[in-house]
Every structure is written in structure tokens, then in C-alpha cells.
Amino acid sequence: MTKATEHKSIHIEGARHHNLKDLTLDIPRDSLVVVCGPSGSGKSTLAFDIVYAEGQRRYVESLSAYARQFLPQMDKPDVDKVEGLSPAISLEQQTATRNPRSTVGTVTEVYDFLRVFYARLGKFYCPECGQPIEAQTTDQIVDTILALPEGTKFMLLAPLVEHQKGTHKDLFKKLKKDGFVRVRVGGELYSLDEVPELEKNKKHTIDLVVDRLVLKDGIKKRLADSVELALEKGDERLIVSVVGGDSPGDTAMSTLSTCPACRISMPRLTPQLFSFNSPQGACPTCNGIGTVEYFEPDLIAPNKGLSLNDGGIIPWKSAYRQEQYGPKLRALGKLHGFNENTPLSDFSPEAWDDLFYGNPKVNWQGVVPILEYGQQMSGVWDHWTARFQQSRPCPDCDGARLKPEALAVRVAGKNMFEFASMSIQRALDWLQDLDFSGHDTLISEPLLKELTHRLGFMVNVGLEYLSLGRNMATLSGGEAQRIRLASQLGSGLVGVTYVLDEPSIGLHPRDNQRLLDTLRSLQSRGNTVLVVEHDEPTIREADHVIEIGPSSGWLGGEIVYQGDVDGLLEADTLTGKYLRGDMFIEPPATRRKDTGRIRLLDVQTNNLKNLDVDIPLGVMTCVTGVSGSGKSSLVMDSMYKHLLLHMGQKANNPGKIGGIDGLDKIEKVISIDQTPIGRTPRSNPATYTKIFDEIRKIFAGAKEARKRGYKPGRFSFNVKGGRCEACKGDGQIRVEMHFLPDVYVTCETCKGKRYNAQTLEVEYRGKTIADVLDMTVRQAREFFANHPALMRKLDVLAQVGLEYLRLGQPATTLSGGEAQRIKISRELGKRSLPGALYILDEPTTGLHMHEVGKLIHVLHALVDKNATVIVIEHNTDVIKASDHVIDLGPGGGEHGGQIVASGTPEEILANPDSATGQFL
After folding, report:
1. Do 503 and 631 sit in the same domain of this protein?
2. HEC states along 681-748?
3. Considering the domain boundaries, does residue 147 fall inside one?
4. Which of 396, 511, 567, 881 has CA 20 to 30 A from 237's CA?
5. Spatial CA neighbour of 533 closest among 520, 552, 546
6. How much is the CA Rg of the chain, to the nearest whole Å?
């Protein structure tokens, strides 16, 4: 290979990682390359585990051994040679953070510029009277103090340390050396010789006593000198602490900002004041998270049909609790006319309120205060009682996360929280309309340029409906990925390989072109953009397509096509056939009629505009609409969370609704998503679907096992007895290599079979338990053909298109689409599902067009068993296959939140107002 071709492509030789079959290929650089193929065929393995991971690993290996020990170890992929790599950046969906402090603003770093913007251009307004606050001069402070009543005793203090950890010994030494005598630590006065040793890990507040005075004639000069000294030591702030008299207490004053009417002093304007991750800016009640946990009576007593004696209060089911609180509860019962055998549903609202929050007349504390006290006293109790808690907006900051002082700063009438609550499009328009004068113009120019730039990139990737204050944990995988894509656009890097995982997820077909323009702009700068994608418009836009197949799992891992899109349209591959229209998903011939309805009343969650929504039961309903129109707010935040609450289960921040009718028809509600079925290699399809339970019973019934007295537990690799103890049933042993990646060595004792020799001597039809775990679903169906209970479960796995999976395949190697279909198969294994409601949020993520057809078939199979299926989806094939469609819109964010159309797919298609109808 010449030097020229070496630099024009990424050359991979002998890729055998996971299921790849010794692939050799060239990926053209500085191009938009799409990798497509069935779910589980090896697309992510090629893109992420080889191209991205190898690029990262080589960069890390270029660092010193000392630096490497602080970085996560990267596994070396099983590949002979990779050449022509450039630094790689991955934008995956799974990395959506669950950190409650992560918001759209912090992740995109817009918030950092915004904090400087408010610190340099903001003006204080008094939180009490709303008047603008200007800084006081030293003379004004002296005059304010002199206006106190004659004979007032007071101290002048300089604040030195605010809520900081440490012993602060050096500070006390320096103050003593400077000639000072007293300090106030945590509100207590000490002489500097007698200050107790402070706890190193506790936060302390320290004020220096500059002078102690009594207000009388002739003290103006001394007062002025002391005020100057206090301001100097206290960083332009001081505290006047009145001792005794009619109004003792502290008044903070500053040459920075104080309201003359309300005497409220404001801190110095710094960027830290606007950070909810710093003690200077965070609301002290919620510590900057914006929500607080509280005990929810409906979770403490979910079953209102039970009495106190029957265990109606879940935390107090034990007899000990009944004896401990019995007398007081009986006294409360006399007051309200109930006894310990009265069902909770018969309690009057006053009795219910007193039961949970207390009544001093009978010396009853209340269930909630008792639980709160127990939580403070014990960490174990705290962990156990967490299931009875919900979160709600903080009562002090109302979800703003910031201190009142930070919220008192405004630019053009808006404070930081009001700005962060606007949609990105409105925030951008507001910034562009701002007009500054004087030296503010010079300060604002670079800040406005940076802010509008970054917000503009977010609009370009179709996220104009989000707000900067939106918590990252509430975003879909596609939205989180596009946010990181917007951050990368702002970085302006060239010569980088960007690896993306289905960036079109969560995007309405209407918004797809903007995403493709964004990917093109990254590529045109001189970057390689490698996209794993099933979306037809994205595949058609590519410069180069790599299709991996021909099927999934061990039936995949080969390159079935590589070249331009025109060549793919003529190729005899699965994707080629669907793009040409030779294969397509046939919509059902008839639409089912509903068997009842759930009615959601006055839904106001997020941007939903007081909706009354009918959800039909016994059919498959698809909720559609452009990105940000309110689909997740309606289905997940409003309906799903309120159904969980109705069933006595925990649901944080349920949406704002007026009520729900028709709940008596729902017996269980299940959300099926693409999260892994297990986080360790010990979890696998056989254990998750309970197939392994049946297999162990069959082996325990084998002649040899009965002779030896082996029970089903003997055939588990998770417990002592039958497993190999050398590797604890893992089949491999991890060898720590310190600053090199850990090496996994096949266990020499069991040769990777997971079981000890005695267990492997038991055979069923000539196969050991280890051989069965190595079988695919297809092989297992042939092998266990005469076991009806087991066959039913295996048939369901085949029905959802997972015939190729090995029964013992580690859960960590399954794709999101495979994990989701395993979860569906577990439900399909049940005989009948009346009263079951299944919710799926974009189930086509990670699925090839061919598999979307299988998924539709499986969802209809759930409905055929009398279940109700609700799907949030943009895929037109799924929409066409639904019995009922609810289309939200017309736009995203504040322009959405309304029902544009509702009815069968044919009725949506005929509705000119529906953006979804245009793409059907």
C-alpha cells in the first residue's frame, strides 16, 4: 500500500473482535461513512470497539506510565492491524448522564459563559422591594451605623471564612501576629488564645472581631477607622453585630451593594454566585439540585383497603411498632372516630392528615415526622425508607437551584433562572435583541458572540425546543447525543474521526435534513464522520456505505457490501432490497377496535396545554409528533408515572394532571426500554427469560444426577456446589496488569466451562450443562423439542428474531435492540395479558428495517394476548402498523403541546395539519 492511500483511508486488517469474521477493509477518511446492517451484526463492534477504542487506546499509550495509572484502562481489540487512525471522538447514546446536577447548559458549557455574562453585566434588584441596588461608600456605612439609637452596644466584624472545611490554624496564627484579639467561629466568640481545634472535614464560618463599641458622642473617628479596617480584612464587606437592646443581631454591609430601604446587603458579583454547584451560589435548602425528597403518604400506605392492624402503614408492619405507637394512635382514633381495624379508605381527610403529620392535642408526632427523625439518626434506615419518598421542586428556590441573592441579579429584566427556562430559540432571539451602552458594550461583545454561537449550533441540530435548565437525565438518547454533537461543532476541530451511534433517534423525519447538514459541516472541515445508522435518508446521504451482515450474532460479522450508495441500490443485500423497494413492511389489513379507554384530564406537564386525552385499550397506539412536541411528557411523565403511583410504586416528579379515569381496567404497567438486561457477564438470555430454571430442572432429573442426589441448584454457575471454584463460575480469570489493560485468561481448571468436573459428568442426551449454554436458541429448540414448557419460552425468543443468540451469551455483549426484544419475549411467554399496559419509547432504536417488521409483529402478538401497547415513535412503518395514532404538535417546545390529529393512520394521513401525515 502506498503512502498516499495510507493517508486517504483507515486500513483495518484481521478484525475478529466479538462476532467479526476476520474482516479486512478500508474506511475512506474525510468522508461521511455510514455503517448499516441488522441488529447484532457487528456494526457497533467495528465502529466503537475497533475504530474509536483503538484510536483512544493509542493516544493513552503515548502518555507516560505514571499518567496512564490515573486513566481508565482500554481493552485492546482483537485485530491484527489498524493504520491511518486519527484522534477519535465518540458520541454514543448510552452516555446520557443520570447526574441530577447535569443540565443542557452545563454539558454544552453555555452555562459557564452565562455566569460570566450575568456577573459582568447584571444589576442587583432588592428581593424585598424590587428597587435597583447600588454600592455604598465607606462614609455612607459610617452614617448608617451612627443612626443607631444612643447607647447601642455593637461589634464590627470582618467575614473571613464562609462554610469552608479545614482547621484554619494558619489563619488564626496570622491574625494573632497582626495584633487581633478575638474571632467568632460558628456564632461563638473566642479569644485567639482559646480557639478550640476545628474539625478538618467540617465546614466552618469565621468572622474577625475588629472593634467593640458603644454608640455615643465622639466615636465617629474611631468608628470610621474601624470600618475601613473591617472592609479591608473582609474583602469590602463587614458585619455590624448589635449586642442586647431591642433588636440584637447581625446586619451585613458592603461597599459593593446594599438596599437603602430594606437594609439588605448583596454579595460581590462573581461568576461563582451563579453556579448551583458551588456553595456561593447554590440554594442552601436543596444544595443546588432544585428538588427535595419528601415522604409521600400514598407510598407509605398504598393499599387504602387495609387497616392499621392489617399493616396499612408499610414501614410499621411489625408488632413492635404497633405496641410502641398503639396508645397514641388509639387516642387519635377517639378524636376522629376510627380504631385500629378501620380501613384507611374510611378515614376522614382531617384524620388522614393528622395520622401522617401529627396532632399535638393527643401528643401524636405523625408518621412522616417519625420517619424523618429515624432517617436523620441512621444511614441504614435512610436507605430503607428511600422507597417511601418522592422528589418535588424545592420550596425555597422553586426549582431555580440558586440562592435568592443570585436570582436578584437581572439583565434587561430577566434573572439567570428565567433565561435558563426559555427555549433555546427564544433565548437566542432575546440575546440578539439586547442593546448595551457605554463600557458595557465592550464587555458584552465577546460574551454575546460566544453565547449566540453555541445556542445557534443547538438550533442547527434540531434542539431549539429544549431549555438550558433542562435536566440531562430527562432527555432521550438521541437528544443527549445531539447536544454533545452541538458542543463538538463549537470546538471547531479538524482531522478528527467522529463516531456516532444513530444520531437520528428521536428526530421527526421533518428535522432530519438539519442533522444531515450538521454532519456534512463536520465532514467538510476535514473530519471523518463514521455513523452507525438504519435511517434511510442518512444512508442515502453517505459518501461511502459499509453493510455488515448477512444476519445477526454468529450469522453476521461479514462485509456484505462496501461502496457508494448507487452500488448499494443494485446490491443483493438486505438494506439494498429495502432501499429499492423489493422488500417492504406490509401494513395490517384491518384496524382493531378498542375495548375501553383511559382518559387523562387537564394535562399540563412541561409544554402540554391543558390536554384531555383518550388512550384506547386493547389496541396498539402510536404517539407521534415533531421533536419536543410533548410525546414523552404525555406518555412517560404524565400517564406512566401516575399509573405507577396508583399502583403504590415510586415515581419521581410525576407530571401535572387534573386526574385519570378508567384506572380500574389496568392491572399492571410495564415500560420496556433498551437498557441492558444485566450489568455483569453472569447475566445472559437464559437466566433473564427463566429458561435456565427449566434447563437445570431437566439436568437434575437426569439418571446420573438423581443417582448422586443433585438438585437444580447444582447446575447454577452463580452458587457454590456445582460451579468451578477456581474462577467462581466465570469461566475466565482476570489478571490485573496495573497500567496496562487487564488480561482475561481462560480458567485452566474448567477450561472456560464454568462448572467443576463432577457436574460436567452429568449429561442429558449426550450434552453437558456447559454444552447447552453454548447452544443457540435454534439449536436448543431442536434439542429440547419434547419439553413443552421450555419450548414455549424458546419459541418466543425465535418469534422476536433472536434465534441466533447463544443461551449463555453475556448480557454485556448484547445490543440495545437485542436486550429490548429479550424483555418483550419474557412478557410474550405469559399465556394471557388482560389488564397489562406496555409502554415503549422509540423501540426501533438499533433495529434494521427488516427487524422493524419483526418488532411490529411481536407488538401485535402482545395485543393479541389482550394487552394494550403504547409506542412513542417516529418510524413511519410502525405508525402505519398501529391501530390508533395520537399526533402532537404543531411544533416543538412552546409551539407544541397540542393534539394536532387523533385516529387511525388513514385519518392522520388525510389531515393537512399533521406534519406526521405528510411523511406517511
Report:
1. no
2. CCCCHHHHCCHHHHHHHHHHCCHHHHHHCCCHHHHCCCCCCCECCCCCCCCEEEECCCCCCCEEEECC
3. yes
4. 396
5. 546
6. 33
